[in-house]
Amino acid sequence: MRRSTLAVAALTLAALLALQAGEAFARAGSGGSRGSRSSSAPARPAPTSPTNPSSPSRQLSSPTPAPAQPSRGWMGGLMGGLAGFALGGLLGSMLFGGFGHGFGGGIGLFEILLIGGGLFLLFRFMSARRQQQQPAYATAGAPYDSSPSYGSAYGGDAPRETATQEPTAPAVASDLDRGLGYIRSMDPTFDPGFVADAARGLFGDVQRALTARDMTPVSGRLTSRMYTELTEQCDRLRAARQTNRMEAMNLRTADVTEAWQESGQDFVTVHLAGSLVDYTVDDASGALVAGAKAPQEFEEFWTFSRSVGPNPWRLSAIQSS
C-alpha cells in the first residue's frame, strides 16, 4: 500500500514538472524588476461606477424604514429546546414503555394529569416570553416626524416640504492619481496614454523577437535586466531546438493601473488583456511541444521605468495574472 502511494506521488510530481517545463517555453515570461513593488501583485483596473456620488438629491418624503428583525434571547432558545426535549421524552416514553419502568408498568390518570399540567405551564411560559420579545414598530424613536407639519413663519397652512442636499464628500486621490501627479511634477508633458500605447506596440514586437530568438531589435526599449532575462529565454529555446510561435494576437485593452516614483525613478504599470494563439514546436519534427493551436485568453502587467524627468521609457518587468 505504501509503495503504491509513493508511486502515485512520484508520477504526480513528474507531471507537474513537465507542465512547468512546457510553460517555460511559452510567450515572453514573467520577470524583471518593479522596484520596491516587485514582490507585490500589480493593481488591477479600477471598476467604473454607474452612479455619480457627487450629484445632490432631494428628500421630499420620509424614507420607508426597514422592518426591524425580531431578536430571540437566549432564554427563548433554551425554553424551546426544553419544550422539544420534554415533548420528545413524553412521546418516546409512551411509545417505548419508558414510564412502564418508572411507574410500575403503566401510566395512571394521576401521571397523565401531572405531565399535562407541566406541559401546559411550560407552553404558557414560552408564550409569555415570545410576547415580551415582539419587536416595536421600526419608526419608534426615529429621528424625524413622519406627520405633516403645519404653520410657519410665513403663516402658511400647507404641509412643509423640506429639500435637503447631501453634502459632497471631498474627492480622495487614489494611489494611481497621486503617482501620476508626482511624475507630472517633474515632467509636465507626461501623458499616461503614451505609455499605454507604447506597451501595446511593444507587446507584439517582443513576441516576434522571441519567435526569432533574438531580442536585439527591441533592446533599446528594454532595461538591461529585462533584456538579459528575455535573451536567456531565447537561449533556452535555441538549446532545446524549439520555437515559440504567436499567432492571431488580439490585444483588446491597455490601461495604466499604477504609477509611482522611488529612488530617482518613474514607474508605470500597464494592464494588457486579450487573446492569442501561443504554442511551441520542435524545430526538427514540427511537433507540438507546449501550448495549443487555439486562441486563449491572457492577462499581463507590463511595467515601464525611466529616470525621473522627460526621459525614454523602457520595459522593466512582466507579470502574468
Topology:
Blueprint: H1 2-24, E1 31-32, H2 74-96, H3 98-102, H4 109-132, H5 175-186, H6 192-212, H7 224-239, E2 242-262, E3 265-282, E4 288-291, E5 296-307, E6 314-320
Helix pairs in contact: 2-4
Description:
The structure is a single chain. This protein has 321 residues and is α+β, with helices and mostly antiparallel strands. It has a domain at 174-320: Nuclear Transport Factor 2, Chain: A. Helices cover 39% and strands 20% of the residues. The chain has 7 helices and 6 strands, in the order H-E-H-H-H-H-H-H-E-E-E-E-E. Strand 5 and strand 6 form a beta hairpin. Helix 2 packs antiparallel against helix 4. The protein is elongated, with a radius of gyration of 37 Å. Mean pLDDT is 73; it is low at 1-25, 49-104 and 133-163.
Q: What's the quaternary structure here?
A: single chain
Radius of gyration over C-alpha positions, nearest whole angstrom: 37 Å
CATH architectural group of the domain at 174-320: Roll
The amount of beta strand, in percent, is 15-25%
In CATH, the topology of the domain at 174-320 is named Nuclear Transport Factor 2, Chain: A
What is the mean pLDDT?
Answer: 73
Distance between the termini: 40 Å
